[in-house]
Design goal:
elongated, 12 helices, 299 residues
Length: 299
Amino acid sequence: MNDDHAVDRATGIFVAHRNLLFTVAYEMLGSAADAEDVLQETWLRWVDVELEQVRDQRAYLVRITTRQALNRLRAMSRRKESYIGPWLPDPLLTTPDVAEDAELAESVSMAVMLVLETLSPTERAVFVLREVFDVGYDEIAAAVDKTPAAVRQIAHRARRHVDARRPRTVVSRSETQAALESFLRALEGGDLQGLLDVLAPEVVYMGDGGGVKHAALRPIVGADKVARLLAGSLGRSSVPPVFGPTVVNGGPALTIHLDGELDAVIAARAEDGRITGLYVVRNPEKLSRITSETPLTLR
């Protein structure tokens, strides 16, 4: 087999698994740009592999991706320590099939991705591979350089940690959509009472401007505070904002344009017909994945 043929074959295999590898990296990192860098690093290592020696190509690629993502995640942890204000995952404009897959949509939702941020890098890798992608303990052990017994303990600890913090119920897309539509009507109409009606009493608002765009420097908790913050922000805007519906990370969301430019993406978490979480991303570096759909997959 000549080198060109080997590279072509490796390329075909890599491309066939690319969406899966991106999903693994993104769920581990929460950053689309860093996930793409991880895929590039994975590719560079993959083309040097003797394919005849690889028994399970998918597992091997996931292993490389996991190792590179772990290295990147540890470096990102240091970057986040100096990040200005709350750090939110990059919002992804997702394809319709993501929203139709309840398991996938929940795993990439802003609410769950933020819970994953509270895990250590190794815990996050183990949890994502085991709970989201159903990877076997032996394969995970090879990816994170731990024994299978240690991986089982880490998986148990991470699962218990996530279960204690993740949203209590899985809410249908239609219920979230209805709550978001009520929210938008109140917001566009300047209806403070309407906002209070659709926001849950314990609603949490998080804004990510990255020090580049104005955003609250800490989470805002409570319907009254969040409603007044939103009403005040609209009142201060010199240009009328244009809202539009979209689908981000598998769930209903809103875009905000100012003067024809994308200014923010609002993702929401709803429960019992009211909004319990609002996640507003304004950092321009995090909005690059809103212009075109990102295919995600668990397989």
